[in-house]
Write a structure and sequence with these properties.
Keywords: Coiled coil, Nucleus, RNA-binding. The chain is of the alpha+beta class. Helices cover about 50% and strands about 10% of the residues.
Length: about 240
């Protein structure tokens, strides 16, 4: 999926820079050995959802709204894995302990996977695959990503998420508008694919109808021919 690929490219670019210019910066991000394989190809992401013009269950709605604006000092972190059934409000609550959090977006799981889960496990809770969180200070975002990555979520020992691990990366030079621009591009691509599939289906249906009509015409001709031959045979006898 292009959105995740774009996020990965940002991380790889940061890795290359770190190899060329080693730094002792206290906020330097720790890269994991391999990325989680997350597929958003079938997710119905909406630009309004990302921007916060419309509130829904995929977002924390405390500070969402069309008037909410990013600034040059804000920074984004990427969550490559969301603990089972953890909601955006919970994510924001946990991360707000370390700094001011702006917008939060969690990508819902594939609709087909959710349908199977509901069918076989009767679990209708919303599950998420990955997410993006905006910190109002990019230095805080960088520090939080370094400190929390691969660490237990912790908190109350009775909390169901106590032993889950954070999978969090800082996205250098990545702003919320980069996320929305990518969503616009992917929505256009999805629309083009759907239009192509619809056109292909229509052509296939038309071809099928033509074949059926031709088959029916041939069958009628053969039936008439058989009847005519039967009448001729009767007249001869």
């Amino acid at each position: 999926m292009r959105l995740r690929s774009h996020t990965k490219k940002v991380l790889e670019s940061e890795n290359d820079q770190r190899k060329e210019q080693p730094s002792s910066d206290a906020y330097e991000i720790n890269e994991s050995e391999e990325e989680q394989q997350i597929d958003l190809e079938d997710q119905k992401l909406d630009v309004k959802d990302i921007n916060g013009d419309e509130q829904d269950e995929h977002m924390d709605n405390v500070q969402w709204g069309s008037s909410f604006q990013s600034n040059n000092t804000s920074g984004l972190v990427y969550l490559s894995r969301i603990p089972p059934f953890m909601k955006p409000a919970k994510i924001k609550h946990l991360l707000s302990q370390f700094g001011d959090v702006g917008r939060v977006y969690l990508a819902p799981e594939d609709s087909k996977i959710k349908a199977r889960r509901i069918k076989y496990k009767k679990n209708r809770k919303q599950n998420y695959t990955e997410g993006w969180v905006e910190f109002m200070d990019k230095k805080v975002a960088k520090k939080v990503a370094k400190a929390l990555n691969a660490q237990p979520i912790g908190g109350n020992k009775r909390d169901v998420y106590h032993d889950d691990l954070w999978n969090i990366k800082y996205l250098p030079k990545f702003k919320w508008n980069n996320l929305t621009e990518q969503i616009v591009y992917e929505n256009k691509e999805r629309t083009h694919r759907l239009q192509a599939e619809i056109s292909k289906s229509r052509r296939e249906i038309k071809d099928y109808i033509k074949k059926v009509e031709k088959s029916k015409l041939i069958r009628n001709i053969e039936q008439k021919k058989a009847k005519r031959m039967a009448v001729e045979n009767e007249s001869l006898s």
